[in-house]
Amino acid sequence: MKRILSLSLVAVMLAIMFTGCGNKEDGDKKSEKVLNFGCQMYTDGVVNSVTDENGGWNAMRFGITEGLFKFNDNMEVEPWLAESYKVNDEHTNWVITLKKGIKFSDGDPLTPTKVKETFEYLKKNGPSGSAKPEKYLEFAAKITADDDANTLTIETSKPYANLPGQLAHPTMAIIDVEHTKDFDNGVIGTGPYKIKSFNGVGVGYDMEKNTNYREDVPYDKIKIMFMGDASAKTMALKSGQVDLVENITNVSDIKEFQKNDDFTVDIASGVRCGFSWMNFKGVLSNKALRQAILMGIDYEAICKSKTIGGLYTPGFSVLPSTLNYGYDKLKNPYRYDPKNAKKILDDAGIVDTNNDGIREIDGKNIDLKYVSYENRLLNDFSNAHIQYLKEIGIGCTADYGSSDDQWSKLAAGDYDFNNNNWITVGTGDPFAYMANWATDTSYCGYSNKEYDALYEDLKKEMDTKKREELIFKMQQILVDDAVAIIDGYYNSSMIYSKKVANAKIHTADYYWITTEITPAK
């Protein structure tokens, strides 16, 4: 009996020991703070700002990289990796002092030499048709690094009105060029999180805390899951598969989340414009046709529809009405007027001769190729535009694919309409954005000598008020020339469960995963 009792006691003790070990492992896993984030996939999910501009956005949005400067929610430039800067009166010599004690996620210290290496790598390797780093440092520049003084000096061949704003763009984020072996999916930055593994195109990333970060990092791990479809984001958030999503674009789903105390919806008026390029190298070179198109679409009705309602503000300029560039003083000659749109077409000889409901140009039915993709309701806008244009006798064929498809067809000029959603003041003002309609940098074949002259003046103008006046005039030219279908001005969103606190969408939506976002207490 004693022997049996002894054996029983040993068994109980062993069971307790093994149970204790198991509980410790379970406890470690439970103590890990993990955020599951569902988001749109751009450019096959790469984080390489050199090969693709969207890759640079991914890297900054996922909390991997940071820039010398960043934007606050008023789109004002603030230091980030930089401590301060000084500029000469000519705006050609910029001395930037870096913050001390910052390290990359691999433990290497951030130095002026490291910053110089990033910019030189961008200049050397950025292909002209993709990342275009010269779009943000378009003037020739001499960069000098002084590691002892912890300063970077940038001397430019021409003056910059706002170089810090251009250095705040995600393309210009600082990376450890020396030690990054996989620029596509393993870039090394100074952000609060670093890449543990890339799980494949259409899947996402496993991220982990950057233990070398200068502040407390709230999460041990972040699982980034690509979800291009808004409904997929909704289902994943409701089921608990993810804790946080960006930009759900089903209005009914957003309203449902707003009514549910288990979720928080943060919506911000952004600085994005949804617009469809019109290709001037095709049939849309006909101004009467473009004018009729703009007058044949009821933009306010679309923005107020059940599908779009609340996520876009209607407008007619390429710059949002919330920006300080004189929107209220602009004149819009193309308000919704389908009767007059038909008259313009008739007067121009663009008529339906065979009574099939579609007008003809040069004896052929008008059949406009409408390129779009499933993001920020772009396909919904495109569908609505197609229906409105049908009513005035203009035919369209939808060509919907991925964001990569949309971009490649835009670059190749393979479209009549190309719908997209762009940030308008990506460098703090719209200079780089307005380049999209300058003759030498346009994707749509548009050319206007007066616009080009104003754009050249904008390049060298340093006075803020005079820049605003130039931009106002440039807007009016684009409105008068009927260069684009304006979807409206997009309002971004973040939606999250009770597991998360302090998640917000910023005006400049370069910043998704930040140290602001924490586990709920």
Overview of this protein structure:
By secondary structure, this protein is of the alpha+beta class. Helices cover 30% and strands 23% of the residues. It has 14 helices and 21 strands. The chain has helices at residues 2-31, 53-61, 112-125, 163-167, 230-239, 251-259, 287-295, 299-303, 338-347, 378-391, 403-412, 431-434, 449-460, 464-480; strands at 34-39, 69-71, 77-79, 82-87, 93-98, 141-146, 151-156, 193-198, 204-209, 221-226, 244-246, 263-278, 312-313, 360-361, 364-365, 367-373, 395-401, 417-423, 484-497, 500-501, 518-519. Mean pLDDT is 90; it is low at 1-20 and 128-134.
Count of domains: 2
Q: Which CATH top level class of the largest domain fits? A: Alpha Beta
Separation of the first and last Cα atoms: 53 Å
How much strand?
A: 15-25%
Provide the CATH topology of the largest domain: Dipeptide-binding Protein, domain 3
- Classified in CATH, the superfamily of the largest domain is Dipeptide-binding Protein, Domain 3
Point out poorly predicted stretches: 1-20, 128-134
Main β sheet profile: 11 strands, mixed
State the share of residues found in helices, binned by percent: 25-40%
**Average pLDDT for all residues:** 90
Radius of gyration: 26 Å
- Just name the CATH architecture of the largest domain: Roll
The gross shape turns out to be: globular
Number of helices: 14
Classify the oligomer.
single chain
Q: How many beta strands in the DSSP annotation?
A: 21
Q: Which class do the helix and strand fractions yield? A: alpha+beta
